[in-house]
Amino acid sequence: xxxxxxxxxxxxxxxxxxxxxxxxxxxxxxxxxxxxxxxxxxxxxxxxxxxxxxxxxxxxxxxxxxxxxxxxxxxxxxxxxxxxxxxxxxxxxxxxxxxxxxxxxxxxxxxxxxxxxxxxxxxxxxxxxxxxxxxxxxxxxxxxxxxxxxxxxxxxxxxxxxxxxxxxxxxxxxxxxxxxxxxxxxxxxxxxxxxxxxxxxxxxxxxxxxxxxxxxxxxxxxxxxxxxxxxxxxxxxxxxxxxxxxxxxxxxxxxxxxxxxxxxxxxxxxxxxxxxxxxxxxxxx
Length: 285
Ligand SMILES: C[C@@](CO)(OP(=O)(O)O)[C@H](O)COP(=O)(O)OP(=O)(O)OC[C@H]1O[C@@H](n2ccc(N)nc2=O)[C@H](O)[C@@H]1O
Ligand SMILES: Nc1ncnc2c1ncn2[C@@H]1O[C@H](COP(=O)(O)OP(=O)(O)O)[C@@H](O)[C@H]1O
Fold this sequence. Notes:
Layout: E1 6-25, E2 31-51, E3 56-60, H1 72-84, E4 89-95, H2 106-121, H3 128-138, H4 142-147, E5 151-154, E6 159-162, E7 169-174, H5 181-186, H6 199-203, H7 212-218, H8 220-229, E8 235-237, E9 244-248, H9 251-259, E10 266-273, H10 277-284
Parallel strand pairs: 3-4
Antiparallel strand pairs: 1-2, 2-4, 2-5, 2-10, 5-6, 7-9, 7-10, 8-9
The structure holds 4-diphosphocytidyl-2-C-methyl-D-erythritol 2-phosphate and adenosine-5'-diphosphate (ADP).
4-diphosphocytidyl-2-C-methyl-D-erythritol 2-phosphate (SUD) binds next to strand 1, strand 2 and helix 5.
């Protein structure tokens, strides 16, 4: 074990799906997709205190909306204990800053940060690949957050190829509506037959999100946010929504548009980054 004192400020960054193509539905109901993940410098933060007993305790500012039994942080910590037979426990503090259910992956990212941080703090010495395997059982997006590098993903999101798309500044809008990933994937009218393309062709084509049309139809608030943003910058939805993002060359340009937001629309400006803030934190120890 590394240390029993507090280990502070482990970041759990958000991601954007710069494109999201749905290619097929498998017999088990899951969808095969091709997507491009890039991290943004906008994060939840987790603090950890390793304890001698195997108990896990979470203090979070979302306990009203997510029960402990469903919280991916505790599920991740339990999976690591089970996989490694580790006898240690932890007290964990979550400072939730990322909007939930917005398609920016906050829950998956919290799970990934928990696995990476506790593997370090408990000294359980799993490889990144082993952590990614455990992470995949918690959610399709967890492995990319553990890997910590922008990636082109295939399969259900678990086959990763590292890529380095341009690191734009983004204005991300948060329509005040929760979009359920499962509901979008269950909708019969979802476009699920986009042809699979090779990586080179994808990187050089125009980028789209196959869930966007459906979500815009179902959720007027998403439609309104996108209609507004697209007047200022190339804009798309991330994941299965509800967040939409516009891309800008300069921070200042993004901030100027953010200043024009009406009071009923929340948003934030963040830089795209191909190396996750989590990977940088781990390197610091
Ligand atoms: C499609 C993406 C793109 O990033 O959407 P967002 O969740 O980020 O919006 C993700 O891969 C989502 O990953 P994640 O949110 O972890 O999904 P999971 O918890 O694994 O699955 C939620 C539900 O979505 C459906 N699902 C998910 C992934 C997938 N490739 N095919 C599916 O059909 C399944 O019905 C599943 O029960
Ligand atoms: N630590 C967590 N942070 C956020 N959501 C969590 C967490 N643990 C479990 N969840 C559940 O996961 C759902 C999806 O969360 P989130 O990852 O924020 O959305 P998305 O995948 O759309 O970006 C939430 O509505 C919540 O019920």
